């Protein structure tokens, strides 16, 4: 399965996805993608491209081709299991509504 | 095993479901993501618009890059370099967004070089004076921001996300341009003349950046129906003029339009007709610098070929060595 934006062997450099931790205590979040020949250059390019204004304290880069994604055609069935399981949410339990600290 | 007729029926049913899902996303002002089904025309429109936008950022480095070595102080050189670097970044964000639609970067580059893809015609004007760095920031980036802020809500997710990032960075561009002009207007009579002369040249082309009048912009309607475009060309142009007038007063600069005046009943400024013949001339390749801009881009790309190849060879060699170590 191809990753969106990855055109494979036609281009000289592979496509990488970039994830940035904006400050300590927060998760890495997807920032965008870029082309680079290897991981060292991918990190350097990511720094130049996505952290020109101190947007990050840590960067992950991963080859776009190495990412496995869920099948978009199966979105219904694949994400169906939470359907009808409202009891997983606190709001399901309405009888205790007016009880303090609950 | 299904017969060809059965599978054709299945495909029709699937297609109808996909079309309904796409229509639902648009109707609920949700976002379309790269792996979603989308109509071919939607995909094509986005590829055209996003790649044209990316090319504009990349070609847009040239009129200002031209002044880096001649900027009047070390501070101004550093600022201009940062701005041109931002434009390279914006081009790259947008190329990435376009790629998610299935076009690769080499193809986009070929389209730019062969003239198959366009870029904003504003970048085909030359920058003969330092004041032009001010006018580009204030007027050209100002118009770009006006155009781009609503694009942050474009229905195609990757485009909207790229635009959000770009808009955050773009406001410094406009302010630094404004301050270049402000400083000139506080200077000698000659510096003031230089600022005014530059604004005289850039004002109308900047207004034309919003594209042709609504009645001559056949694609706009569909783009608005798809939530790619949120406001019409003329609405955005009006908004821009309304913002510029008070800013020009702060500068003490005259906007070169004798018909520009406040219209009480409309609650907007009226302004004169633009020279659309000139716009179409520049678009057709007969602007001041069309040939130079594309030739320079091609040369930069060709001159960089050995770097790309060397980096690729180095990466391949390291990867092979790693594999060998793992095998032994």
Task: List the keywords.
heterodimer, A: 102 residues, alpha+beta, 2 helices, 3 strands, 16% helix, 23% strand, elongated, B: 328 residues, mainly alpha, two-stranded antiparallel ribbon, 13 helices
Structure description:
The complex is a heterodimer of chains A (102) and B (328). With 102 residues, chain A is an alpha+beta fold. Chain A contains 2 helices and 3 strands, in the order E-E-H-E-H. Chain A has helices spanning 39-50, 75-78; strands at 14-21, 28-36, 58-63. Chain A is elongated. Chain A starts with 13 loop residues before the first strand and ends in a 24-residue tail after the last helix. The relative contact order of chain A is 0.18. By secondary structure, chain B is an all-alpha fold. Chain B is built from 13 helices and 2 strands, in the order ααααααααααββααα. Chain B has a two-stranded antiparallel sheet with strand order 1-2. In chain B, a hairpin with a 4-residue loop joins strand 1 (261-263) and strand 2. In chain B, helix 2 packs antiparallel against helix 4. The longest helix of chain B has 29 residues, at 157-185. The termini of chain B are far apart. The chains are: A alpha+beta (102), B mainly alpha (328). Chain A binds chain B through residues 4-7, 10-13, 15, 32-35, 37-38, 41, 48-49, 52-53, 69, 72, and chain B through 34-37, 82, 85-86, 89, 92-93, 96, 99-106, 161-162, 165, 169, 308-309, 311-312, 314-315, 318-319.
Write the layout of secondary structure elements.
The complex is a heterodimer of chains A (102) and B (328).
Chain A: E1 14-21, E2 28-36, H1 39-50, E3 58-63, H2 75-78
Antiparallel strand pairs in A: 1-2, 1-3
Chain B: H1 4-27, H2 40-59, H3 61-65, H4 74-99, H5 105-113, H6 131-148, H7 157-185, H8 189-208, H9 220-225, H10 233-251, E1 261-263, E2 268-270, H11 276-286, H12 290-303, H13 305-327
Antiparallel strand pairs in B: 1-2
Helix pairs in contact in B: 2-4, 4-7, 6-7, 6-8, 6-10
């Amino acid at each position: 399965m191809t990753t969106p934006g990855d055109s494979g062997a036609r281009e000289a450099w592979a496509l990488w996805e970039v994830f940035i931790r904006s400050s300590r205590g927060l998760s890495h979040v997807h920032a965008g993608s870029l082309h680079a020949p290897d991981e060292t250059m991918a990190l350097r390019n990511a720094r130049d491209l996505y952290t020109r204004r101190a947007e990050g304290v840590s960067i992950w880069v991963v080859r776009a081709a190495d990412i496995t994604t869920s099948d978009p055609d199966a979105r219904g069935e694949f994400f169906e299991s939470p359907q009808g399981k409202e009891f997983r949410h606190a709001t399901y339990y309405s009888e205790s509504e007016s009880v303090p600290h609950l | 095993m299904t017969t060809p007729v059965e599978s054709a029926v299945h495909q029709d049913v699937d297609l109808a479901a996909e079309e309904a899902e796409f229509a639902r996303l648009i109707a609920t002002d949700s976002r379309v993501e790269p792996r979603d089904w989308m109509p071919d025309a939607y995909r094509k429109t986005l590829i055209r618009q996003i790649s044209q936008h990316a090319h504009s950022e990349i070609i847009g480095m040239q009129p200002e890059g031209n002044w880096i070595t001649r900027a009047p102080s070390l501070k101004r050189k550093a600022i201009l370099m940062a701005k041109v670097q931002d434009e390279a970044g914006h081009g790259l964000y947008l190329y990435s967004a376009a790629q998610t639609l299935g076009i690769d970067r080499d193809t986009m580059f070929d389209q730019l070089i062969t003239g198959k893809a366009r870029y904003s015609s504003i970048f085909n004007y030359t920058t003969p004076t330092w004041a032009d760095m001010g006018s580009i920031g204030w007027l050209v980036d100002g118009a770009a921001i006006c155009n781009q802020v609503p694009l942050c809500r474009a229905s195609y997710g990757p485009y909207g996300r790229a635009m959000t990032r770009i808009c955050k960075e773009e406001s410094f561009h406009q302010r630094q341009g404004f301050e270049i002009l402000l400083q000139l207007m506080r200077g000698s009579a000659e510096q003031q003349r230089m600022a005014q002369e530059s604004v005289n040249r850039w004002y109308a082309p900047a207004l034309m950046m919003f594209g042709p009048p609504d009645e001559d912009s056949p694609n706009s309607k569909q783009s608005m129906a798809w939530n790619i475009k949120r406001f019409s060309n003329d609405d955005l142009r009006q908004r821009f003029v309304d913002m510029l007038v008070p800013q020009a007063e702060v500068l003490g600069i005259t906007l070169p339009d004798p018909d520009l005046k406040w219209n009480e009943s409309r609650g907007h400024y009226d302004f004169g007709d633009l020279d659309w013949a000139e716009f179409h001339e520049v678009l057709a390749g007969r602007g001041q610098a069309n040939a130079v801009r594309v030739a320079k881009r091609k040369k930069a790309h060709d001159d960089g070929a050995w770097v790309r190849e060397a980096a690729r060879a180095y990466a391949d060699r390291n990867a092979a060595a790693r594999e060998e170590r793992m095998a032994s």
